[in-house]
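Please check the following for our workbook:

***
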Amino acid sequence: MGKTRDLFKKIRDTKGTFHAKMDSIRDRNGMDLTEAEDIKKRWQEYTEELYKKDLHDPDNHDGVITDLEPDIMECEVKWDLESITTNKASGGDGIPVGLFQILKDDAVKVLHSICHQIWKTQQWPQDWKRSVFIPIPKKGNAKECSNYCTNALISHASKVMLNILQARLQQYVNRELPDVQASFRKGRGTRDQIANISWIMEKARKFQKNIYVCFIDYAKAFDCVDHNKLWKILKEMGIPDHLTCLLRNLYAGQEATVRTGHGTTDWFQIGKGVRQGCILSPCLFKLYTEYIMRNAGLEETQAGIKIARRNINNLRYADDTTLMAESEEELKSLLMKVKVESGKSWLKAQHSENEDHGIWSHHFMGNRWGNSVRLYFFGLQNHC
């Protein structure tokens, strides 16, 4: 495992490194842009629109919290500083992680002082609230900005505080999440969910039962998280006010720039979403989607697969959700419940007239897969 990096380095040296080129990007009207400044402006226009805050959603701020969680210890800072992965690109402040390794104990003392001040005042340095977005091609036409995911490069210094905050949050997150959610949890992973589905299919084959499975893929899931909704969810789930205030102030006044092959864009404000590349984002997003599933009433409903006196109707890995039922009617019922609650939280399934993604449903008939049935998120249109 420790030599994985060396293995991939040798592979890159052998076949060369692929660099995605942005020679041209389409504007919102579908026209190709080839000039450097036009491409930069288009990326800024797209990302500003993607992360634009809803003006009708006022900020709910309770001020500084005086009932604080236990103080940050210097040993926490030292441990987190040592655990930061090397060979990572720097964030907006341009400070490489190697600098902290050179400074050693001096860096620990300085960062402990900064983290302690943030912990006490709940106010973050502006440099720690800045992100550099790197567009990475994900699918489809590489000329469309919407076919990229925007990974965030953040300050290495801020990662120490983020790791500490994550560790304090983890006990509450573990308490709230059900065992059907396997994302970023100790001892669990995608292979567990694949094994679970395979085992369910095996039992269906053995007992000649029909099973209907629906796969949901949310569009720009991390980018659509409503901040005020998130803070309300954290409060309802019993997250301490001090930790919620730290998170809220981290996201208040966030700024970002997009790094393209032609330079970086101007800085702009971030009004929604959780940063892809931040250690806190999977944790926050899981609580966000857990709230959706709870309100959809998946635990209370009788629809699902009956196994060992237990009803299982969903398996999850972060934003990837699988719904399961023993009839098409039950599956549609589950899907409609999730659709309604997802819409209330500004999440929607991917939907395109040209590509097969979004929501798929498959029918397993005891010994084989039946015809694929596509259920659109909007209107539940079936294609057999």
